[in-house]
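Let's do one together. I've listed all components of the complex below, 477 residues spread over two lines.
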Amino acid sequence: MTENKLPSRSENFSEWYNQLVLKAELADYAPVRGCMVVRPYGWALWENIQAGLDRRFKETGHQNAAFPLFIPMSFLEKEREHVEGFSPELAVVTIGGGEKLEEPLIVRPTSETIIGYMYSKWIKSYRDLPVLINQWGNVVRWELRTKLFLRTLEFYWQEGHTAHATEQEAEEETLRMLDVYADFAIRDAAVPVVKGVKSEREKFAGAVRSYTIEAMMGDTRALQAGTSHFLGQNFAKAFDIQFLDWNNELQYVWTTSWGLSTRFIGAIIMTHGDDQGLILPPVVAPIQLVIVPIFKSDSEQGKVMEAVEKVKQALGHLRTHVDDRTEHTPGYKFNDWEMRGVPLRLEIGPKDAQSNSVTAARRDLPGSQGKSSLPMDSLGTSIPALLDEIQNNLYRRALDFRQANTHKPTHYEELKQVVKNGWADAWWCGAAECEAKVKEDTTATTRCIPLEQPGGQGKCVVCDRPATQRVIFARAY
RNA sequence: CGGGGCGUGGCUCAGCCCGGUUAGAGCGCACGGUUCGGGUCCGUGAGGUCGGCGGUUCAAAUCCGCCCGCCCCGACCA
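Okay, and this is what the predicted structure of the assembly comes out as:
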């Protein structure tokens, strides 16, 4: 009767997540520890994420390009913080074509260095600036503990790398791309995010300042869903990226980098999913609409399939799938597509065909609550409207959840308590010791200093000294 | 690397403590029929060097040793 049941989301979130990823056929474990195979359904979701981002990148004037997978080891060593940050997690190639290499190559963990090297060759004048390039690709980081999509040895992402003539322009670019990520997360993925600045401790190795969008997952843990870094002149100096300015003076460029990875798929799963399985936001769902035909006799089949054809034509612009498998009963298919997160299901049976209507079932509302009968003639407008409503409902629900689980502790004992099961939004003096103490005592870290601040000042939740900024403490993935 | 748990058909596990016929179940898979508006039901069948190596024993999935792998919790991280 109940086969292939998922573990309960509320009882064992982690197990629920792992099994859901496998059963929904988003990904599978690869033979190498920590590596992941992205299966067609998962990749289709990634392609929709890519499309949403890529459109925004183009709108903001960026171009795509591709840089090498292999980077000379010496490149990494040119920027001190960068090499310190990434050394422990490098994959290194020492043999090529059977010969020991003179200089080891690293498999890129990120491409600031090799792109910096190329930029130094390309940029000579202020007329060459800005350079606005994005790369879609894969990178390798030898992580100790991995989790499907969230942290794998190899992952797919995009990394944007830009160079500018002035500090202000680079800062603007950094924030512009942070906004692009936030807009994508909110509007395409229905994932509410907080934009903010990372603390010194949490920032990218080599950055002057790292910005982040942080999202709350269904177990209240935080996930860094995308980052944008202001790199100052760190990489420009390490790679000699210099240009002659308007006054014929030699200047270092100002650079930025920003990235969003397949980790975001994990964010979508953990934000929207429920005990039944995935719930995918319509904008990014590989299948927006599944049609389940229902019939017994041959004559019923004829009428039903005729209706199915009509519906397909009316909804030609949507990503639609007709589940015409004969080996499964309708009930089985309902559960199957719910598990896979398809946002809307249309059931078309003899009764519907008879009454010239279809039965629609929303994935975001459970059981009969989400069911309604829609007249066949107006599906061209009613279905897109319904998908919109689902998209909006998913966002609002996730936002409500985050707000309900974000606390504002005013003293340390309270902080320690709330951070066990939620976010803490609190005054912080900015001292690294306070940050470290919280981590020590609770495992929670500072996620970001939100860009939106209430103003005024208070007392640091850890040490009671005066504080002018609020920060979010949370346990994170 | 530290702490905990676990390795038995594709999956989830029982059997192990107390060694002894051809190693089991449910799900999945294949075939036939039945059913089809919320995971139909019945039948038949395929599929396992019990993680690996070694030891004890007349006899090892079961006892002992070593190794390997996986999962969870930490340190590292998008």
